[in-house]
Amino acid sequence: MRIRIVIWGVTAALLFLLIGLLNLEIIHGVRYRELGKKNCLRLVPQPGSRGRIFDRQAEVIAESALSYDLMVLPQDALQREKIISSASRILGISVEELQRVFKNNYLSASVPVPLARNISVKNAIALAELKGDLPAIIVQPNPLRHYPHGKAGAHVLGYVSEIDRWRLTKLKDYGYKTKDIVGFGGVEEKYDYYLRQEEGGVSFEVDHRGRLIRTLGFKPPVNGKDIRLTLDIRIQKICEESLRGRRGSVVMMDPYTGEVLAMASSPGFDPGVFAQKNNAEIARLFKNPNSLMVNRAISSAYPAGSVFKMVVAAAGLEHKKINANTSFVCSGGMRVGKSEFKCWSTHGEQNLLAAITHSCNVFFYKTGLLAGAQAIHDYALKFGFARMTSFELPYETPGFVPSPLWRKLNRFKNWYDGDTANLSIGQGEVLVTPLQVARMTAVLANGGYLVDPYIVKFIDGKDVSRYHERSEKVNLKKNTIEKIREGMRSAVSDPTGTANALSGLGLAIAGKTGTAQAPPGQPHAWFCGFFPYESPRFVICVLLEHGGPGHISSVMAKEIIQEMLKQGLI
Amino acid sequence: MRNSFFVILTIALLICSLGVLSIYSSTYQKEGELWQTIYQRQVLWIILGLFLFYVIANMSYRRFWDWTYFLYAIALVFLILVFVLGTTRLGAQRWLRFSWFNFQPSELAKIAAVVFLARYFSRKASDDTCLSCAKFGAFKGLILPFLFIAVPVGLIIEQPDLGSGMLILILFTAVLYLTHVRLKYIALFLLLVGSALPFMWHALRGYQKDRLLVFLNPDIDPLGAGYTVIQSKIAIGSGWLWGKGWLAGTQSQLRFLPEAHTDFIFATFAEEWGFLGGLGLLSLYFLLIRQGFLIAQRTQDSFGKLLACGLTLMLAIQVVINVAMNLGMAPVVGIPLPLMSYGGSSLLVTFIALGILVNIDKTRAVF
What we know:
The complex is a heterodimer of chains A (about 575) and B (about 375). Chain A is an alpha+beta fold and about 575 residues long. Chain A contains 22 helices and 23 strands. In chain A, strands 2, 3, 4, 5, 10, 18 and 19 form a 7-stranded mixed β-sheet that branches. Chain A has a 5-stranded antiparallel β-sheet with strand order 12-11-23-22-21, sandwiched between helices. In chain A, α10 (about 235-245) packs antiparallel against α22, α14 (about 310-320) crosses α16 (about 360-370) and α16 (about 360-370) packs across α19 (about 415-425). Chain B is mainly α and about 375 residues long. Chain B has one domain (about 5-365). In chain B, about 70% of the residues lie in helices and about 5% in strands. In chain B, a hairpin with a 2-residue loop joins β1 and β2 (about 90-95). In chain B, α1 (about 5-25) runs antiparallel to α14 (about 345-365), α5 (about 105-120) packs antiparallel against α13 and α6 (about 140-160) packs antiparallel against α7. Chains A and B meet through α1 and α2 of A and α7, α10, α12 and α13 of B.
């Protein structure tokens, strides 16, 4: 019966359709449901802007500006030509140049090609208005980190860039995603969590032409929190300019609170280069043999040289091995064990005041040998050496101060008197950072308190400095500090003093130079000091890497203070 | 024998109501007076269709025997008129404009072809109840009826409406098979059609070629010819077991799915009613088609038997092709889903066909 066969055929066809329906709706249902959602749901992200960074005078030193990029969808050649000619008219760039840029940036037919970056708001609006006639035109806004003071404070601020793999794995749990812009180095990295903006967005339903049907949800973007530093951008600029690109660092600090007023490191870099994604320039920054990206004030440690003598003097005085009247005769050197230890000059009879004034090595060899290496080590630690300063910025190095016990345990060697002599003038294995030296100077300036240096004063308008102020009293007799201060004052005021260059500024400055031998090459030039002498408000520490004798640094300190006086900052 | 009348009426009304619901759902978000009232127009067509269904169910189907050539001629005239006066919509000239509606003559041609074939192959039956077409030679059994069918089919394909044309050809083959024409003639016919296919490829319009290519691989042109199939598959696939609910289907509501109220109404329906809805709808069609074949099997009159078979097959083939094309299992052709798709001509012709079926069942005892 043919009719039966036809009926079976029709039934089979209907069953076949049912199986097709089952396959599409149930077996592949999840996939198609996703596709359906993708069809009609759109998410338009709305980026917030990263928090701003101010200096202590509320001067903006890092902010988020919007920049606009002109891009073109390359599909339609005719439209492209029109866009290029109108863009050339609006932006004032020649058509040939734009075509060259287009060719260089072209990837594929569906990827928008950037024609011009960082165009002004006015031009961006003018170009966006053309979108009606030329839909292939795209004006893309980008939040861009902007630094009104250019390179000033670059090491303190750090820079922002796309998150790297290491940070991403570390920070994934805190909501960081790939392609996020995060801070690298300095305040930008340390306080990234606060500065960071939260991306908001609108999700809405669209129809087949991408027209909005209804808004499904809106999450407002949250701007990052603003941070106000203790840094004074004017002083910072003076310090950076006085370094004149030489390798070195200047730290200025409030001796009582530990507020860092300036922290210059040279040579510096322009953080704006990272914001603009100028890759060639970025590669050059990292390849520079002078290590531009290193904040020399906290991340490099140097032999201390004569600035360490204050520690030795304090150890001697506190242990009653010397007093203000103790004198030693400097005959240009002395013999310790089998070797001859030299002084940089022949000073004759020197008491403590004169020894600090002239930076006499022999006096301190003898003081150090009397006090002992362990005492020097202990007092160095009291002054905050050989450990982190608890400063906020990342990548701080603790430096190092040796001790006989350490030598025994780690190097399996004995400690000799010669090592004590070397330690007494801050040579040998001693390594200190400019910030640590500034902190030590602050102890002498403020009468015996070890302050914790800090640089962030307000986060989002809240005073966070109280979390920093934990200045502890260093157990020093008043007399000890007084004697050393007198010595430092004398080093400036005495015509034969090593820091005499700083006299005659109309300001009572106390200071100490240091010449740290660092063969091969020139010694590191140190200067640490504070002013005004009676009621100190500033501590300064200058270091010039392989800059020559300490005198050079004292001259630089003079320039800085002179300029500050000129600008009325003191 | 009124029972088949009520069974068919119930099933048809159920399908029609689901159709109206889906048409309403796919159009109520569109702007414009025309879109807002489109479901009301469909209701109007259904009422008119029911009226026709009632009239024809009570009118002896033997009259179609008498009217066969008249029907055939009318269909031809309309098909020719389409070329002269037809309105062009969606790139095809398929409609004749009357005062307030558009009439699609290819729908009439379908039913005329079925009536013609039924009469042609059953003319000997009045004096011999046994179908004797098995004794037909090649000319009588194949060439002559084919020539009669080829004229309207050619006109329809020229409109262009490849789908309806092919539908009539498939129907022709099926009727040949049912009337016990020798299998070797049918095989010959299929062979001829098959060998003509490569030549017909060149006669196809560009969009028709695209649709066939896209059917083989929808991803070659996802925003052009493949768009409809992809969106239809997404619509059906995202329905899942229960569907998204009436008026909640994003694919049809937000107009990602083109022709959501006509050819792709099954996708609209399946998106909102899910697999269970689709299962129910296919079951309803199965019951309707089964009723048709039961009537055909119960009928002793060869004309009635062939007519019932042909009309049922006409419905069945349309359902299968339309649903298959919604599922992406057949190329996209302009064949509506009977009783569901918006469109007066298709609806009226379907109701006429159902009316004839009921009448065949009612009057079979006469002979």
